[in-house]
Amino acid sequence: MTVGIPLLEVRGLARAFGGLRAVDALSFDVQAGEIVGLLGPNGSGKTTALNLISGALRPDSGSVRFLGRELSGQPAHRIVRAGIARTFQLVRVFESMTVLENVQAGRMFGADTGADRPDAQALLARVGLAGQAARRADE
Ligand SMILES: Nc1ncnc2c1ncn2[C@@H]1O[C@H](COP(=O)(O)OP(=O)(O)OP(=O)(O)O)[C@@H](O)[C@H]1O
Ligand SMILES: [Mg+2]
Q: I need a labelling partner for 102 at 20 to 30 A (CA). Which of 11, 17, 20, 66 fits?
């Protein structure tokens, strides 16, 4: 792990929808190993902030650095390869893919990339779904 710089540095992040400034001058750091919550009333810009960090939305201005590397404005597939994954408030499956493929898709990203991490089939077994691996998720 890189020492001395924050894991994530957000500086002056801003995004407006028409005249509505959903996120304005958002700045914070996340250090390695730290768990940080983002609190605010409905409509205060939490989801927009996560969309800007993960690349679902482009910021109007500001910077998002991950391990010192500027990611702001990059497409989501680059940001996820750099190591930033997100989840959604409402969890959904890829309906036309199999149960196993759904787990494989989620498992491609995230911090645990060691060779000894469990494979998708083992993860299914852990939650009692090993026998369903080949079925379509919408079944
Ligand atoms: N794509 C969009 N187009 C237009 N306005 C948007 C869009 N996304 C969000 N907004 C507006 O931006 C503001 C911030 O919304 P956001 O969803 O980020 O809030 P939130 O803090 O996640 O709210 P909640 O607690 O309800 O999840 C709201 O006024 C919302 O209506
Ligand atoms: Mg939200």
A: 66
For residue 22, which ligand has an atom nearest its CA? 1
**Top-tier CATH class for 8-82:** alpha beta
Question: Where along the chain do its domains lie?
Answer: 8-82, 99-132
The 10s digit of each residue's pLDDT in 42-80 is 999 999 999 999 999 999 999 999 999 999 989 998 998
Ligand 1 pocket member 43 (CB < 6 A): yes
Residue of the CA atom closest to atom 17 of ligand 1: 47
| DSSP secondary structure, the chain, as one string | ---SS-SEEEEEEEEEETTEEEEEEEEEEE-TT--------TTSSHHHHHHHHHTSS--SEEEEEETTEE-TT--HHHHHHHT-----SS----TTSBHHHHHHHHHTSSS---TTS--HHHHHHHTT-GGGTTSBTT-
